[in-house]
């Protein structure tokens, strides 16, 4: 099997059937499979995907019991992929299926473990582009990602790397974060980016904040390490302030007691609240990781039926 195409499906009843047709034509010269993962869609996506498994021998369908999130759906699909390469593609036609062969050629000619795509012109909304820039900036500092590398959701991963990615069993998978834990042998290829054909983007502010926090607290220790220089700086500032107040008490005029007490309470209370919030994030993530919360729960799997 040359290629596995993993597609997270969410409320895609108007696009998924046509996407499968285009994939069948675009990839006709190679052996491939399509793994559809329904991430708790509220429309007729599940019925349509089930129908597609009967129309095409190389289409497999997994339906999750609820909405677990895009990355969880993708890692579920990766667990069931068999191709030498795996490509993740969105279900909204913004990533043309015809560009996949270009990605395979890039991986084979350069011997890359991962191939990311980048766009001549992005057709996302301003809000989506702003969120993408924020995530790329964050990953550049936390994951040591090259600043010029755009982390597109439309990417290709070699099967050997996929097998390492799926060893992660935590409830908060971030595919790009896992990639940078495993390899730096990464290539890029330019592709076209098309406008969304129907529906609205599922990229909400809530999901952006959730992704931001997952990257910040699940894939880097930098936030908590930042408190070392901050703590040392505040300790030095506090020491100098105590020296100043002591000198004022000796020389005069004496500082008012309520001013010193109030300022100290606010100062120390702010530090404690900030530290507790950061530690709470780490402890909460660790608790959820150890609590056995699954990445996903399969409702139906056409491979096993």
What's the structural blueprint in terms of helices and strands?
Blueprint: E1 3-9, H1 16-26, E2 32-38, H2 45-55, E3 59-64, H3 70-79, E4 85-88, H4 100-110, E5 114-119, H5 126-142, E6 155-158, H6 159-165, H7 175-182, E7 186-191, H8 205-218, H9 222-225, H10 227-251, H11 257-290, E8 298-301
* Structure classification: alpha/beta
Q: For the record, what is the CATH homologous superfamily label of the largest domain?
A: Spore Coat Polysaccharide Biosynthesis Protein SpsA, Chain A
The CATH topology of the largest domain: Spore Coat Polysaccharide Biosynthesis Protein SpsA, Chain A
How is the largest sheet built, in terms of strand order? 7-5-6-4-1-2-3-8
Q: How much strand?
A: 5-15%
Query: What is the residue-averaged pLDDT?
Result: 82
Label the overall shape: elongated
Q: Spell out the helices and strands N to C.
A: EHEHEHEHEHEHHEHHHHE
**Number of DSSP strand runs:** 8
